[in-house]
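ok trying this again, last paste got cut off
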Amino acid sequence: MQVPNNLMDMAKKLNELYELSYNQIKPQVAYIIKNNIKDINFIDHVFDELLNIPTEKCYKLFTRLCTYVETFNQDIAKGYVKIYQELYGQEEHKKKKYKWLYFF
């Protein structure tokens, strides 16, 4: 089955957008963790951004941020894991190497 060129172009543009978003959010996650930031409003914003980018790279950032947030607020970490599960399904993250998400 051949995919129309315009559909392929849209998929390529979407992947480029995801990559751009990842490159913008990655330093924010690093900043939060490196500087031991506990500003929930800022962290919520970063989580929201991560949840909008359904890529493996962003999933890894999401798990890093969840692991960090869990050190000072398990309820928030669990809440975002639940949101992730609702958006992407439990089966999806069971397949990934970050299986700890399943245990929340």
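PB: full thing came through this time. The chain has one domain: 5-103.
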